């Protein structure tokens, strides 16, 4: 399995970003880490190994970027407006830097986005804000309501980075073209977030799969079982 390390300076963030990339061809998948996780977290916890076959067969090329959770939603030392503003810059980085990079390298005109736990938020937010850029969305134990991090404060950056707020009013045609899988489990602490998001999608007649697995907790073992199943749906 080919593995590459990349470091670049993001003009949107004015920060150096790091990323691991697995594979040399195939459908591009942006795979986000969990809360405050590093760019190598998904490798270290075995999620990459769980889909090694897809990578080795050239079906997918997986991009694992770092996030800036510690200076956005989880930074209690700054005002919620600043947390949201910084996150809007991160979204701009994904849209203008990382997604085009992945599409150019693979020759595919859309990306898939995926993530476990808080990584599911990053994936869902990018997919629902920019559905014309996303062919597939896979979340595993995701949470999707960012208002838990905003201390009661609310502004446009919070609204437009909170899927449960902006999605009900979105009429972007590409939402109805996306392959969407919301993975959760009976004992998942984030199960209700998935049910709520599924209800929003149902209200808009957006086809998706709410995959509720039995007898499993919010943890890596069930996510490693889900991820290869979900990648198998990429056409």
TrEMBL record:
Keyword Aminoacyl-tRNA synthetase: no
Keyword set includes Hydrolase: yes
Sequence ranges assigned to domain AB hydrolase-1 in this UniProt record: 86-150
TM region positions: none
Keywords assigned by UniProt, alphabetized: Hydrolase
An example molecular function term from Gene Ontology annotations: hydrolase activity
Superkingdom of this protein's organism: Bacteria
UniProt xrefs under Pfam families: Abhydrolase_1 (PF00561)
Protein name, UniProt field: Abhydrolase domain-containing 18
Species annotation: Mucilaginibacter conchicola
Source taxonomy: Bacteria, Pseudomonadati, Bacteroidota, Sphingobacteriia, Sphingobacteriales
